[in-house]
Design a protein that fits this description.
The protein is an alpha/beta fold. It contains 12 helices and 7 strands. α3 crosses α4 and α4 (103-114) crosses α9 (198-205). It starts with 10 loop residues before the first helix and ends in a 5-residue tail after the last helix. Residues 1-24 have low confidence and may be disordered.
Length: 293
């Protein structure tokens, strides 16, 4: 159900609107999906930014797979997040926005692919490893303390590794063939592993109005940081930007089509650490607020 928008202006203007029988629609609900080792409590500041800028907006932060449970397999998470978001969408005839942080951005992309007739208006991907992850970060050292990024593939590209969420988007550019053979999540999202639903997934994804990609060079976790806008390393660890990626050029899941429509927007912010994206007011004002109408 939509809620009335608070009208700023003189009492006379408000009276004229009422006399004219004017009706102002409410803002679309903004559904937030958290990242790895996160939960709803980390997003209260962002929620407050949204409700202050757009009073009356519903801002559900989905409480699923919080904290340590965020390491559970991603396809299981996608299924359950989809169910939770479906119940919100059914009560939002004008659609919803998805605002998804870090690992949550991959979960959201997967649920958009796999949900026919969804009513997601804008998909805002907030510092998410959309093209994969390859870096020695605090999360990686905590999970695999005896491993460096050069050896993590031995775990991640095993049957056990593919039961851990972080391994399902671990994209080692030096072991490309193993990645394509063993990865059971990101390779499917990017159309690098063929499956029967590729056409349907593409059609579902293209239902969105805008794809907003937010990230920055001082993130410190998403590696390379350009993965937040679909860039990634080649075998020499040089970053290949989005438009030169094979999945873009072949338009396998609709990214090139979205871009050609003018519906891919990027926002780069320097000086923002990974855990600060959802509490940084400048990021909200510069990168997020305009897409929540």
């Amino acid at each position: 159900m939509t809620t009335p928008q608070i009208i700023r202006g003189s009492a006379a203007q408000l009276l004229l609107l009422l006399l004219a029988g004017g009706c102002i629609d409410g803002y679309r609900p903004v559904v937030i999906v958290h990242g790895i080792l996160d939960g709803p409590k980390q997003f209260q500041t962002l929620r407050q930014y949204i409700t202050k800028a757009h009073p009356g907006t519903e801002v559900p932060v989905i409480s699923l797979y919080n904290d340590m449970k965020s390491f559970l397999p991603l396809w299981k998470q996608v299924r359950d997040f989809s169910k939770a978001i479906e119940s919100i969408s059914q009560n939002a005839p004008d659609g919803i926005h998805l605002l998804c942080f870090s690992q949550g951005g991959l979960i959201c992309r997967a649920l958009l692919f796999t949900t026919p007739r969804h009513n997601v208006h804008n998909f805002i991907s907030l510092s998410s490893p959309q093209a994969g992850q390859y870096g020695d970060t605090t999360y990686l050292r905590w999970l695999f303390p005896q491993c460096l990024k050069k050896t993590v593939y031995k775990i991640c590209y095993s049957r056990f590794g593919q039961s851990l969420s972080i391994c399902q988007y671990w994209n080692d550019p030096h072991h490309r063939s193993l990645y394509l053979q063993r990865n059971n999540f990101l390779t499917k999202l990017d159309g690098e592993r063929s499956h029967a639903d590729m056409t349907a997934w593409r059609e579902n994804f293209l239902r969105i109005k805008k794809l907003v990609l937010i990230g920055g060079p001082d993130d410190g976790v998403i590696t390379p940081w350009e993965s937040s806008r679909f860039g990634f390393y080649d075998s020499n660890e040089n970053v290949v930007e989005m438009r030169n990626q094979e999945f873009y050029k072949s338009d396998v899941f609709g990214l090139k089509t979205l871009d050609a429509r003018g519906d891919v927007r990027t926002c780069i912010q320097s000086g923002v650490k990974h855990v600060q994206w959802h509490s940084n007011h400048t990021v909200f004002k510069s990168c997020i607020e305009k897409w929540l109408t």
